[in-house]
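hiii, so i know i said id send this last week but things got crazy w the move. better late than never?? heres the sequnce for the chain we talked about at the cafe, plus the structure i predicted for it. fair warning i was half asleep when i ran it
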Amino acid sequence: MKNNLLKIWFYLLLSFVIFHSSVTIMYNFPSTPLKERFESEINSYIEPLFTQTWTLFAPNPVSTNVGVEVKMTHNNNTETQWISFSELVHEESQKNFFSHYQFYANALIQMQGEAIRISEELTSSKSKEEEISSEISQNSQIDYVEQVINREDISTFLEENGVIYSLYGFIYTYFENNHFDNITHMQIRLSSEFFSEYGKKEESKYMLFYLPKIQTNQLLIGGEYAKKP
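okay and structure toks below
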């Protein structure tokens, strides 16, 4: 009797393993007539197995990744490409957990949300999903931000938005002391990457949030505003 029960359990388990493996393989295979015929059944079986809500012990997994990027003008009007400040800080913080780069990383996380909110207010009619490589769309947003805030009003804008003021000063101090000399202009943008859900074969989507281009002499230096040239 015991041997018969063991055989039954063995064959049931073997049948389940064969069924599960077959469906999983079909789910990951390229499109075929057989897969198309049973696509709804395959998806209804596989997707719930790999969809996690984490509602019991933790919030849903993070589905976005926000990065801070900066473009600068230095030394006789030499302009850089967009530099990922977030990646620089992350790489340095991984080398030494007790370094001051941990402070940089934590400060960026605290500033990002408010910076995005302010950028959305500036470009409320222009913000839209776009690929980072879309230069036309980028230039359109950059020009729009420049028109929203008159150059003479940048100092007022910085005074009224302390987080943006701190973010520019924070990044300026890092690059002026480590990488570039005589930085004259800066512009910051935030890149928000939205990941696709598991099981959906979609590329990540991006939104770019631009902040105004400023002159570095509009930042607070040594407790006083730097004198304009």
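btw Residues 64-225 form one domain. thought thatd interest u
miss u guys!!
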